[in-house]
Design goal:
Number of helices: 21
Distance between the termini: 32 Å
Low-confidence stretches: 23-36
Radius of gyration: 30 Å
Shape: globular
Largest sheet: 8 strands, mixed, barrel
Structural class: alpha+beta
Number of strands: 17
Strand content: 5-15%
Length: 567
């Protein structure tokens, strides 16, 4: 199958060569000045108006600062023309912009088709490009290129628009004007543009997955399965659309063609749920965050009949969010909320072999209990922690129980405290003190112990949300496929492994025996880190693996829907 990028580029270059406007390498090396000396004057005039008559989005005030640097009064020569001919870099750039969808961007935003058509129109026999037309085209190409560079490097919108607390200081890292000048001279434009994207493995894998699912989206009929007559189809049962289901699972690579061909007992038109199909369905369920039981139930049917175009959109939205993130560091902890997973980086090499991975529990989907998306720094951890109950939980949940049951506090090992530190005095559970819980003058904390809501360790990253990582006595919840159970904090499944990872950044060496002793001790013990560990709480509903498997997750907080509307 020919590469569409190369094919389009070759057709475009050959066409322009035949029309006499494509500049040759000899012309580039000669670097002769344009025959028409008026182009700089027209460039400056267009800049002053901050309007391009060649673009549908004609106002380029957002790009003006970069364009003013590119076309300063001392340097107003065209960037994309030499000797009145368009340069190879301009053609290659227009080709890239025409393929913007392969980057998860909207091709229409960069107007490559209309600009290319305008070039072709000006190149018809008997026509010659004027200085004014050349200036207008040059600025139009630069304008859409600036938009593309910014979108590719930073994303299309400010993450704060969707309520994500992510820094925008990365805007100072890239000199867009210099980048564009370098691209105008590039001999390998695709490689140079790739350097503008996030430089981590799973971003590149996600781009590859995008291409694959864009191809699948050309076959919407593959997900049009008939609804089963039973709410639960399992091994041995019949289902009239089993042949269509096999075709879908083959396309999704959950069922391998070789396995089907070598199975003498399975025919493609058989309507029975045979073991091969059941295993393929388990593969599919695992990839989509469902209980991998091999049973075709309502949730699995809903996932199977989700249009591929929706999967493409999920990938595009996740690519957008990954562009908001700072570069990877080591050590670093990343929690992906919809995946219910934590990743701890052992080095800046983010291959799966260099990651500590574990299951997590995140906040419930209610607005006031969702785990927020933000960047933080883990500064210390606490063995045998108290649970300082947030005022909102005290008011909504605990106070009614305390007033109904005089023994509630003691039964759950709660105590009343006057003050905000661990050394604050414990006060008696008098009616007066209980009434002051509602105002926050008195607070509740739970003593360390087996039933403590935080388990036996908490990992602290001070933030305005009062969200942190901790263990939990409710280990059975990690067996659930959808783990949104907390009030916003993040519960981790493998406390010991995470403690070992975090304590490698402590002032004194910690060994497993020391950690075990601290976990079993009676005293509350705080351990400060000599260097804070960056923590990224992120939200991506797609995760590709190095094996080629692509995992999709439910949009549990509705962030995909909100971002899609903004875009």
């Amino acid at each position: 199958m020919p590469n569409p990028k190369i094919t389009l580029c070759l057709i475009l270059i050959l066409t322009l060569q035949s029309l006499g406007i494509f500049v040759t390498s000899d012309a580039l090396s000669a670097n002769k000045p344009s025959a028409d000396q008026d182009a700089p004057q027209f460039i400056q005039s267009i800049l002053n108006n901050k309007q391009s008559s060649l673009l549908h989005k004609s106002d380029f005030s957002e790009e003006y600062a970069v364009l003013a640097t590119l076309y300063s009064p001392n340097s107003t020569t065209p960037l994309w023309f030499i000797n009145d001919r368009v340069t190879p870099s301009a053609l290659a750039l227009l080709n890239v912009l025409n393929q913007a969808a392969t980057y998860g961007l909207n091709t229409a935003d960069y107007e490559a088709n209309s600009l290319t058509a305008h070039l072709m129109d000006l190149s018809r026999p008997g026509k010659s490009i004027t200085a004014q037309q050349q200036a207008a085209l040059d600025i139009a190409i630069s304008t859409v290129a600036v938009r593309f560079i910014r979108h590719l490097h930073y994303g299309r919108i400010d993450p704060r628009q969707v309520g994500f607390n992510l820094p925008i200081t990365r805007n100072q890292e890239l000199d867009v004007a210099s980048t564009l000048i370098n691209l105008s001279k590039s001999h390998d434009l695709y490689t140079d543009i790739e350097k503008l994207e996030p430089q981590f493995t799973h971003y590149r894998l996600l781009k590859s997955a995008l291409t694959r699912y864009q191809t699948l989206a050309e076959h919407p009929e593959w997900v049009q399965l008939r609804k089963p007559t039973s709410t639960s189809i399992k091994q041995g049962d019949s289902y009239s659309d089993v042949p269509a289901l096999r075709r879908l699972l083959l396309a999704e690579q959950d069922l391998t063609a070789s396995a089907t061909e070598t199975n003498n007992h399975t025919e493609l038109d058989d309507t029975r749920f045979d073991p091969l199909l059941v295993q393929a369905l388990k593969n599919y369920q695992f990839r989509h965050g469902l209980t991998a039981d091999g049973i075709l139930g309502p949730q699995t049917f809903k996932a199977l009949t989700t249009p591929f175009s929706k999967r493409v959109q999920q990938i595009e939205l996740t690519l957008e969010r990954w562009r908001w993130l700072p570069p990877l560091q080591s050590p670093m902890i990343v929690v992906n909320i919809p995946q219910f997973k934590l990743f701890a980086f052992k080095s800046t090499d983010d291959t799966e072999a260099n990651l500590l991975r574990m299951e997590v529990i995140v906040g419930q989907a209610f607005e006031h209990t969702q785990t927020p998306v933000f960047l933080g720094e883990m500064k210390y951890m606490v063995f045998r922690p108290y649970w300082d109950v947030p005022l909102s939980i005290t008011q909504r949940e605990l106070l009614p129980n305390i007033r109904r049951n005089p023994n509630y506090l003691e039964q759950h090992h709660f105590e009343l405290v006057k003050g905000q530190s661990d050394q604050s005095p414990v006060v008696p559970a008098t009616l007066e003190n209980i009434n002051q819980l509602a105002t926050g003058k008195i607070r509740i904390r739970q003593r360390p112990g087996e039933d403590n809501a935080l388990g036996n360790i908490k990992f602290m990253l001070p933030n305005k949300y009062n969200v942190y990582l901790h263990s939990t006595p409710a280990q059975q919840l990690f067996n659930e496929s959808r783990r949104a159970f907390s009030h916003g904090c993040i519960r981790v499944s493998n406390t010991l492994a995470l403690a070992e990872y975090v304590l490698s950044n402590a002032a004194e060496p910690w060994h497993q025996e020391n950690i075990t002793a601290a976990l079993q001790g009676e005293a509350n013990q705080r351990v400060n880190l000599i260097k804070p560990i960056p923590v990224m709480i992120v939200y991506g509903t797609v995760m590709p693996l190095e094996s080629g498997v692509v995992q999709f997750f439910e949009d549990i907080y509705g962030h995909d829907a909100k971002l899609a509307a903004l875009l």
